[in-house]
Amino acid sequence: MDEAVAIMETEEGYIILDVRTPEEFAAGHIPGAVNLPNEAIGSEEIALLPDKGQHILVYCRSGNRSKQASEKLAALGYGNITEFGGILDWPGETIKDE
Question: Which CATH architecture has domain 2-89?
């Protein structure tokens, strides 16, 4: 979690990937995050993530799905992934979809 916070404070060009369900995402997520449920990550190319070299910061609710999603993304050829656990431990603000 600390590593992800530091990346967000110092780097640019990363993507924050929330791998929870759309309903969980709408109920509260990290500002700037995009939603791609873990269950939707399979063996096909992901249009939402066209750059396999882009730094991807992955989180879920508690850390289980983000680990699974990170492994699946790595298997698809994504090479710059930081899995940082769950939003339950997120120290910053969250926003809700209205």
Answer: 3-Layer(aba) Sandwich (3.40)
